[in-house]
Write a structure and sequence with these properties.
heterodimer, A: about 280 residues, alpha/beta, six-stranded mixed β-sheet, four-stranded antiparallel β-sheet, 10 helices, 12 strands, about 25% strand, globular, B: about 290 residues, mainly alpha
Chain lengths: ~280, ~290
């Protein structure tokens, strides 16, 4: 069954020429470059994330990790390279002469609908209640009937431990509660990939745990996750793979054990040394 | 002493000023009809002006330079010339377009019961006022819409996009509902202005409140008395609007976006003394 689905998928999207055989990674970034006003923040990033894998990206600020994450759902345009999500190129299409042209808005939106994103600053919709925040996209984007969307939204709020807060507006919620609603909101679209952009960095220390707990639970359920974080404990315990980025490229890529106990890269050793001192 | 005596004379002894005219015409059918026409003109002009402002905002944000250019020139022109001149220009433009006669021939207002005035209400006069007020208002509303939309954190649009929304859907469902909360107070002030600016349609010969009053007062040598009648009506309209505006703003704030914002009591709202300052952005959730 899965194979059949795979074949259908290839029939639909195989024409991109990128994937010619077998299962493709959930995220496939190839030689991604990105500049802001002549300042190159991504200098050739290559990363493959398998289905069900939890990849944690660490690195000093300004290393390009957040920018790279935002490229995966095309919130940032890239200057060159390719990013495929579940076999489909995101943000661009290849023209007949092999160059890239930005994709149509609707197609970008269609792919983004399959990618959940959690922001550092939560970005909840302040004019909607927690429940309405979670229901909004399934109704408006997927065309889900209201009753069904509400039932599933209540289920998701219960899952993140906020069933009681369904009718509260974001301004009435703590940072940790807001971030958990934001996770529920992203999950409501039934994404096949979740991106976490420093999801706990804006939280007071005592609220970090409740958000990490939800993320941990998601990882255990087999969600494919790419997580940018400063929480080294989370990286160590939950990640299948830890990526260390610095100066716009991936400096080291390995299991948490390799990264934290036997770092080879000079930048990584410096980075870990600074963290331990702090 | 001399000044006080003079003031007393103005109010009580001046034989040219007759309070009886004020009472006689305050509720005259012609004046009431003029006031109704003023309200109709103001409501439609504000509505069209707001739509125009939205359109001009999105043109100004367009990726095509020609739209940005049109939007800029439009605002430059309509904010840079007097509204009175715009009324005149549009009124005197109709004959060139061959529209003045056909518009006069359509007896729209007499057919819907506007027959109590001091003269017929010509459609070209009404449309001159309506067009000038709407187009002029569009220029000011673009700036108000811009302030409202630009006050919304860019993260809101990104959150919408990350959920698979297109720009227009995110605008409609996420950005505009939040922007409108910011736009409402200055929009209310704009409508207050609009109620009074309709008096410039007088220049096109429309028998709205001011023109009606002047037309009654002139032959009676009671212009000042009838101006007091007109002023009383303008004050009544803007006062009632002050209450409505206060009510709308309270309703909007009831959705907990800005918990704890003081609203002021009824007289503060009516006289525009509400402690809530116009144009404040909703409090965005922040942690540090």
């Amino acid at each position: 069954m899965a194979e059949q689905k795979e074949n259908e998928h290839m029939a639909t999207y195989g024409g991109t020429g990128a994937h010619t055989n077998g299962a493709h990674p959930m995220v496939d970034a190839r030689d991604v470059h990105k500049s802001f006003h002549g300042n190159e923040v991504l200098r050739g990033v290559n990363l493959q994330v398998r289905r069900g894998e939890v990849v944690v990206i660490i690195g000093p600020s300004g290393s390009g990790k957040t920018t790279f994450l935002r490229c995966i759902n095309h919130l940032e345009k890239i200057n060159s390279g390719r990013i495929y999500v579940d076999g489909e190129m995101i943000g661009y299409r290849e023209t007949s002469d092999g160059k890239l042209a930005e994709d149509g808005e609707r197609n970008i939106a269609r792919i983004r609908a399959q990618i959940g994103m959690v922001f550092q600053r939560f970005n909840l919709f302040p004019h909607l209640t927690a429940l309405q925040n979670v229901m909004e996209a399934p109704i408006q984007v997927k065309g889900m009937p209201k009753e069904q969307a509400e039932a599933s939204a209540r289920e998701l709020l219960a899952k993140v431990g906020l069933a009681q807060k369904a009718d509260a507006y974001p301004a009435r919620l703590s940072g940790g509660q807001q971030q958990r609603v934001a996770i529920a909101r992203a999950l409501a679209m039934d994404p096949k990939l979740m991106l976490f952009d420093e999801a706990t960095s804006a939280l007071d220390p005592e609220l970090v745990g409740e958000v990490l707990k939800v993320m941990r639970q998601l990882a255990e359920e087999g969600m494919t996750m790419v997580v940018v974080t400063h929480e080294m404990g989370f990286a160590r315990d939950v990640a299948d793979r830890v990526i260390f980025m610095d100066e716009g490229i991936i400096q080291e890529d390995g299991t948490p054990e390799q990264i934290f106990t036997a770092p080879r890269n000079e930048h990584l050793r410096t980075f870990l040394g600074q963290i331990r001192k702090a | 002493m001399g000044i006080l005596q003079w003031l007393q004379n103005v109010v009580t002894l001046n034989h040219n000023f007759n309070w009886a005219y004020v009472w006689k015409y305050l509720f005259a059918p012609a004046v009431i009809q003029g006031a109704i026409l003023t309200i109709i003109l103001a409501v439609i002009s504000q509505f069209l002006g707001t739509l125009m402002g939205l359109l001009l905002y999105f043109m100004a944000r367009s990726r095509w330079r020609v739209f940005r250019g049109i939007s800029g020139i439009y605002v430059w022109f309509f904010r840079g010339t007097p509204l009175l001149v715009q009324v005149f220009v549009i009124f005197y433009l109709f004959p060139y377009l061959g529209l003045a006669r056909p518009l006069r021939a359509i007896e729209f207002f007499s057919q819907i019961g506007f027959t109590h005035g001091v003269g017929p209400i010509f459609l070209d006069a009404f449309l001159s006022g309506l067009l000038a007020l709407s187009l002029n208002e569009g220029a000011y509303m673009r700036e108000i819409v811009r302030a409202g939309i630009d006050a919304i954190d860019v993260g809101q649009l990104e959150a919408g996009k990350s959920l698979g929304m297109t720009y227009s859907l995110a605008m409609r469902r996420i950005i505009l509902p939040q922007a409108f909360r910011i736009i409402i107070p200055p929009l209310g002030n704009e409508f207050n202005n609009m109620l009074k600016n309709t008096s410039l349609a007088y220049a096109a010969g429309l028998y709205e409140l001011l023109n009606t009053s002047l037309s009654i007062g002139g032959p009676l040598f009671a212009t000042l008395e009838l101006l007091i009648v007109a002023s009383a009506w303008y004050l009544a309209m803007t006062t009632v609007w002050g209450f409505i505006q206060g009510y709308i703003e309270r309703r909007l704030n009831a959705s907990n976006i800005e918990p704890g914002v003081k609203q002021g009591n009824w007289w503060q709202r009516a006289f525009g003394l509400s402690p809530r300052e116009a144009g404040t952005a909703p409090v965005l959730p922040t942690e540090h």
